[in-house]
Design goal:
With about 90 residues, the protein is an alpha/beta fold. Helix content is about 35%, strand content about 35%. Strands 1-4-3-2-5 form a five-stranded mixed β-sheet.
């Protein structure tokens, strides 16, 4: 079960952990994004509803941590494709 992080500063501190595997950023729209951080033992999630804060969090991710940005529409399209195959 992911641990909900309520502040951007706590999430940024979690990105500096030595056991971070990757970060997935889901862009819901221009003003909202969900950040999913996967470590060796835990998962952290953060929902940001301020557009200017999203880019500053992305900029503060350490360079050695891999991250990917996914649009919400891509996830919905993949789900619909799987449903059509059934």
């Amino acid at each position: 079960m992911p641990k909900q992080v309520v502040s951007a500063n706590a999430f940024i501190e979690a990105t500096r952990r030595p056991d971070v595997k990757h970060i997935k950023i889901i862009r819901v729209n221009e003003e909202t994004a969900k950040f999913k951080l996967k470590t060796a033992k835990k998962e952290f999630s953060l929902t940001v509803k301020k557009g200017h804060l999203i880019q500053s969090i992305i900029d503060s991710i350490p360079e050695n941590v891999k991250y990917e940005i996914v649009e919400k529409k891509q996830i919905v399209d993949q789900f619909n494709a799987v449903e059509e195959e059934k």
